[in-house]
């Protein structure tokens, strides 16, 4: 369970950092980042696998590039569920999802090396 809590906090920190790199994404507070990270994790765990299977032919045809679109859609979907978390449009959602993933990956990698 502590590992899950640490992952959630890392993802919330990554989400809170995204607006500093992209003006088209805003997160109003740390509490908003925590809630959005939790919902984003749930959406990515529950809905994303179903969408990956349903869009597999398109993903294969685009050589995997459609996964960026799915990630952006999931990111954008969470903005509709969480007040205080805003993205200015579809392309901003794709960019925000990419930046969020990179920051989350970097923080996870840095924290895992210290163990």
From TrEMBL:
It comes from the Bacteria. Keywords: Membrane, Transmembrane, Transmembrane helix. The chain crosses the membrane at residues 27-47, 54-78, 90-111. Coiled coil: none annotated. Pfam families: Phage_holin_4_2. Signal peptide: none annotated. The keyword Transmembrane applies. PANTHER family: SLR0284 PROTEIN. This is Phage holin family protein. The lineage of its organism: Bacteria, Pseudomonadati, Pseudomonadota, Betaproteobacteria, Burkholderiales.
